[in-house]
């Protein structure tokens, strides 16, 4: 399987994920049932768009509609929503507590990929967070103190790709490599 | 009588305008998705629908201006898909037309006392209601 195609063949699209989560949230106070108008307000899109999108979710058995055009998640839809929530929690914790991003940035970035990562990746990420937070490991503390320095910037694929992409950070990183290299050389003398 | 909550009514009118403009775009795309040979009926229907949705959006924008605001648009339409029959296009049109009708109906009780706007929304409910009926009728004929 070509990896980029997996993005399109994901179980739920970004839009579908948000529709399912909106139904879950809006319907919470009404026994799981949500009105199209409330879903539209929640997502800040038109009712027409919501209705069109709900058609495909109904066809896929992720939601059901009653005679009053109210909708709710099926068991399969609920399972997907729970999975997305779990992924989001793990990703948010990783971005904020491990990488040190702001709460807002962690929220935005976790939202972008919460429905795309596999359960296996989420589980391993959760394991990594637990490992870094484990008693005595102080992993997060060490990471925060760590001054970014690549051991082999000339052949390191990360550094090379970043530089080729013209990221500003890569330039700074290169300068850092050079500065550290000079310091080391001077120190050795 | 309770004074009209201008800001929230304008917000609703902006939403309605977006519904109409989105419907226009969806009709535009549906028209070009029609399979060859769907005939004069389909062409006539889409011409009318495109004209009507654009006119409605224009009228809503004028009412927003009358209330002392400028129209605000938020439209997010992604529409793809393979060629379809006129019947399939009608079935999709019915979904968003029904929503537009419901949206007009829901706004009606909130604008009591604003005579001109109330008259306009009542007319819209009637027009959209007829439109939904027309699509339903066409769908029956095509099945």
First-residue to last-residue Cα separation of chain A? 53 Å
Basic shape of chain B: elongated
Which consecutive residue ranges of chain A, at least 5 long each, have pLDDT under 50? Answer: none
- What is the CATH T-level topology of chain B? Ferritin
Structural class of chain A: mainly alpha
Which strand-content bin applies to the residues of chain A? under 5%
Q: Give me the CATH architecture of the domain at 3-78 in chain A, please.
A: Orthogonal Bundle
Summarize the helix and strand pattern of chain B as letters. Answer: HHHH
Fraction of residues in H or I helices of chain A? 55-70%
Oligomer: heterodimer
Strand content of chain B: under 5%
Greatest interface by residues involved: A-B, 15 and 20 residues
Radius of gyration of chain A: 22 Å
The CATH superfamily of chain B bears the name: Ferritin, core subunit, four-helix bundle
The arrangement of helices and strands of chain A along the chain is HHHHEEHHHHHH
Q: Helical stretch count of chain A?
A: 10
Largest β-sheet summary of chain A: 2 strands, antiparallel
Helical coverage of chain B, percent range:
over 70%
Q: How would you portray this structure in words?
A:
The complex is a heterodimer of chains A (189) and B (143). Chain A has 189 residues and is mainly alpha-helical. Chain A has helices at 3-8, 14-26, 36-43, 47-59, 75-98, 103-113, 119-133, 139-145, 157-164, 168-188; strands at residues 63-65, 71-73. Chain A is elongated and about 65 Å long. Chain A starts with a helix and ends with a helix. By secondary structure, chain B is mainly α. Chain B has a single domain, classed as Ferritin (Up-down Bundle). Chain B has four helices and no strands. In chain B, α1 packs antiparallel against α3. Chain B is elongated. The mean pLDDT of chain B is 91. Classes of the chains: A mainly alpha (189), B mainly alpha (143). The interface between A and B is medium-sized, with 15 and 20 residues.
């Amino acid at each position: 399987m070509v990896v980029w195609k997996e993005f399109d063949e994901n179980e739920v699209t970004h839009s579908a994920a948000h529709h399912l989560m909106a139904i879950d949230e809006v319907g919470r106070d009404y026994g799981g049932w949500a009105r199209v108008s409330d879903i539209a307000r929640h997502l800040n899109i038109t009712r027409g768009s919501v209705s069109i999108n709900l058609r495909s979710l109904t066809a896929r058995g992720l939601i059901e509609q009653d005679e009053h055009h109210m909708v709710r998640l099926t068991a399969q839809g609920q399972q997907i929503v729970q999975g997305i929530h779990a992924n989001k929690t793990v990703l948010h914790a990783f971005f904020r507590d491990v990488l040190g991003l702001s709460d807002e940035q962690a929220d935005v970035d976790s939202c972008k990929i919460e429905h795309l990562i596999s359960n296996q990746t989420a589980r391993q990420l959760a394991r990594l967070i637990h490992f870094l937070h484990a008693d005595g490991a102080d992993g997060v503390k060490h990471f925060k103190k760590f001054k970014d320095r690549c051991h082999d910037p000339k052949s390191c694929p990360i550094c090379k790709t970043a530089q080729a992409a013209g990221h500003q950070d890569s330039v700074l990183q290169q300068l850092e490599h050079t500065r550290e290299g000079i310091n080391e050389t001077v120190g050795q003398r | 009588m309770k004074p009209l909550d201008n800001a929230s009514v304008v917000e609703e009118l902006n939403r309605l305008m977006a519904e109409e403009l989105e419907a226009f775009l969806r009709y535009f795309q549906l028209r070009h998705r029609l399979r060859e040979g769907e005939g004069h009926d389909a062409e006539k229907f889409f011409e009318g629908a495109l004209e009507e949705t654009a006119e409605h959006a224009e009228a809503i924008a004028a009412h927003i201006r009358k209330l002392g605001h400028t129209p605000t648009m938020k439209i997010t339409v992604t529409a793809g898909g393979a060629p379809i029959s006129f019947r399939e296009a009608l079935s999709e049109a019915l979904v968003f037309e029904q929503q537009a009708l419901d949206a007009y109906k829901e706004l009606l009780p909130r604008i009591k006392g604003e005579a001109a706007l109330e008259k306009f929304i009542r007319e819209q409910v009637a027009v959209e209601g007829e439109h939904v009926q027309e699509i339903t009728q066409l769908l029956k004929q095509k099945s």
